[in-house]
Structure formats: C-alpha cells, structure tokens
Amino acid sequence: MTQLRRSWVETANSSETGFPLNNLPYGAFHTGDGTLRAGVAIGDHILDVTALENAGLLDLPETGVFSRGTWNDFMALGADVWESFRTFLTDALSEGAAQQSDLEKHLVAISDATLEMPFTVTEFTDFYAGRHHAFNVGSLFRDPANALPPNWLHIPIGYNGRASSVVVSGTEITRPNGQLKAPDMDMPVFEASKRFDLELEMGAIVGKPSKGRVSVQEADDMIFGYVLLNDWSARDIQAWEYVPLGPFQAKATATTISPWIVTKAALEPFRTSTPPREKELLPYLSEPGPMLYDIDLEVGLAPEGKAETILSHTNYNVMYYSAAQQLTHHTTSGCPMRVGDLLGSGTISGPEKENRGSLLELSWGGKEPLTLDTGETRTFLEDGDTLTLRGAAQGDGYRIGFGECSGKLAPAPALD
C-alpha cells in the first residue's frame, strides 16, 4: 500500500484529512466575487488552478482550459494530459518543491469558498447493480425465491435519468408532488410524496468519448474519476408509474453529488475485484483485472436542528458490476458516450441490515421504523431532515476523501 506523500501544505500531512497529497481531487468554487474557478483540494485549502493558468504556471496544450471554472474542457484533453497535470501538481505541492513560492499565493481556504458543480453533466444514467440491494427490494415486492429478475445476473440493468436535476452537495432538495395510488384506492391522487428516500451510490464520470462498442478495459480507461452520489427517490410515485417502462418522475427530483472529483489515479492503490459470479457473464463483460475499489461509505441523517444519527455503513467493494462493466454495456447498442456523462452505480447495500443503502431497505418498506439517536423514528424522510453521505479509501497513514454529499429536504410546493 502506498504511504502518505508529504506536502509543504502542512494540513495535507494529517491522517485526519481526506485531501492529502495522495488525493488531489478536482472541484469548482467561488469566493466573494462570485467568479467560478477550478480548484484542487489539498489539506484544508484549495489550489486555484484557474489562477495558475492565468499566471502562465501550467503547461497545457490549449489556452483557456479552466476559464469556465469547471473540468469538462480539461477532461477533453485526454489521458496523457490528465497524467502529466497530476504529476505536475504532485511534484509542485511536495515537501521541498521549488514551486512553493509560486503556488502558495494561489491557495484559498476551503472555509472561505463556496463549492459548486465541478463539471457540467452531459447525460446521466443510473444503474441497479448492487446484489444485496436488488435482492432486498425484490424480496419486499416478490417471493424471495424470485427476488432477482431473470436478467439481473447477466446484465447491468439501468435507465436514462435527468442530467438537468444533478446538483452539488449543499443544495436544498424539495419534496416532490406526484401521482400516488395505494392498493386500496380506486383512483390515484396528486399530492406530496410520503415515501421519499435516499440511495447511497457512487458516480463514475466519463472523461473520454466513444463511438461504437468498447471493451471493459477501454471503458475503464475512459473513466476520469468518481464522486459520491445520492439518487433521491420517491418510492410511492415510483410504485404507481414504473410499470411498464420503469422509473420516471420518481427519480427526476434531484441527484446530489459530492463536490470533489476523486481521480482514478488517486484510487489506483485501492482496486479490488468484483465478487464471484453466480452465473458466468457473457465474454464482452469479462474484466481484465480488478475494477472495483475499496471505499468505506456511510449515511447520516440529522433531523432539523438536531444531532445526526449514522444509519448505515457499507463499502463500494460489494457491487456486483463495476462502473467499467456498466459503461461497456452502455455502448453495446452503439450509444455514443460523451465527456461529462455520469453513471450512477446503483444503491450500495451490504449483506447485513446495518449495511443497507436506502430507507426502503432499512425500514423494510416502512414496516420496521428506525429509532434515531434523538429518540425519533423514521420509515422515510421527513421535511427538515438532512441526509449526508461520506466516503473514503483508507491508506497507510492517509485517507482519500470525497467531501460530504449532503442535502436538506424542504416541504413540497403548495398545491393549487
């Protein structure tokens, strides 16, 4: 396991920070003037790379790469530039680097910055690729003996979501209105969702475009980095609408991502393999090597004005299909992938109750209310609740963090 790399930014050398020199995640921020700038997290600071480019301190093949303040234009430069840029940052921020005097004037305290969407989402696809989650949900609504659909062990199931409703951590989420119908009702009603939920996921960001089908290795090479992702879900709206075409409005309210893109290079020491297959996959989904990552994850819920309760602990390594396999399958129809496409992993649940990544599972469809540390109970989310996802890969004396993926639930709009 790689050890901590020491930086002249002292706070980056702490075992408590999620942003050591080993990480260097990419984000977007603004300060008092409101101008969006691209930045790299290091310890408790952000290195303003838009300012570095303006000062002529970056060697890039094009000009104005960071003028928009986001990372799409940089991603489009390709993997060789990704690697050389990361090497430059690592060297320049290392302890004893000659560039310290040039760079330290472009550091901004994270506490003085407002974090924004780090990239423009081109398209969003959400998958259903967690074995334990799929089994739990199937057991809730069907006989556990037939919990998994017949295709599930052969194919990464997904649906095309809404890029327009992907938001950055800290954005308030409004409870949706929609059509609801219970089994004992003759007609649906239009009112606020009563079974609003979270989904603990990881998001993979496509950094290289494709034309035609790609292999799993090629798909892995296309992935620029990862974020935490909460795909908010209205379970009661979904129950009424999903037959026969699947999720629609139930998943369109919002998808929250963490503010920092953790690069694939930073996660390289934490690669691990997908689990043993219950049925052999078709050859095009075969993995040439480990394609998952060992990333500890947790979910916290804080009622308005009250202390947080940790609802769940799990790990990204339990996923049945990797992001590379999902991306490979996405291209089989000839579907072109574009720079800035976002792939949601699907809900990440482990084998035990405390590893479940949604309230639907944790409360077993509302039949087993959870008791919070405050003494309150929850089956699904209540107005004023703040949900926070956290994740980190644990190295030798350092952590690779993503920042928090958080959102507070506001009441539904009043009905006319």
Could you provide a short overview of the structure?
This protein is of the alpha+beta class. It is built from ten helices and 27 strands. The strands form seven sheets. Strands 6, 7, 8, 13, 14, 16, 17 and 22 form an eight-stranded mixed beta sheet that branches. Strands 9, 20, 21, 25, 26 and 27 form a six-stranded mixed beta sheet that branches.
Describe, in plain words, how this protein is organized in 3D.
By secondary structure, this protein is α+β, with helices and mostly antiparallel strands. It has two domains: 10-116, SH3 type barrels, CATH 2.30.30.230; 124-410, Alpha-Beta Complex (Fumarylacetoacetate hydrolase, domain 2), CATH 3.90.850. Helix content is 17%, strand content 26%. It is built from ten helices and 27 strands. Strands 6, 7, 8, 13, 14, 16, 17 and 22 form an eight-stranded mixed β-sheet that branches. Strands 9, 20, 21, 25, 26 and 27 form a six-stranded mixed β-sheet that branches. A hairpin with a 2-residue loop joins strand 2 (37-42) and strand 3 (45-48). The model has no long low-confidence stretch (mean pLDDT 97).
